[in-house]
Specification:
Order of helices and strands: HHH
Number of domains: 1
Structural class: mainly alpha
Number of strands: 0
Oligomer: single chain
Length: about 110
């Protein structure tokens, strides 16, 4: 029974983690490939700059919330994974997770 509960909880946490990822990365991509080019074509530079600034001011708090959700959902996902061994980078799984966290760290810096 405990394994079933753990599996269900991990499924829910994984879903929340993926939703936060989609929101963060999807929002960045929509802003980069849709909002920014459309604004630059439709508005004069001064107005476009003000508009993009307003969009980013509304988007930034949601991005920060997504990053916090990613952090707090990723920790239990990692710790409950059977491959997790603290500070052991000898397995392939641990190396992939380490590389993922380095890439995410770079994305966090670029996003903020």
């Amino acid at each position: 029974m405990a394994d079933l509960v753990t599996t269900i909880l991990l499924g829910i946490v994984n879903w929340i983690h993926l939703l936060a990822t989609v929101f963060w990365i999807g929002g960045v991509l929509v802003n980069l490939f849709v909002v920014l080019p459309s604004t630059q074509k439709a508005l004069d530079p001064s107005t476009a700059g003000k508009f993009i600034g307003m969009v980013m001011n509304r988007f930034r708090p949601l991005t920060i919330i997504s990053m916090i959700v990613l952090l707090f959902s990723g920790i239990p996902m990692t710790m409950l994974d059977p491959n997790y061994v603290p500070l052991n980078f000898t397995s392939q799984w641990a190396m992939v997770i380490l590389i993922k966290h380095i890439v995410v760290g770079i994305l966090v810096v670029l996003t903020l």
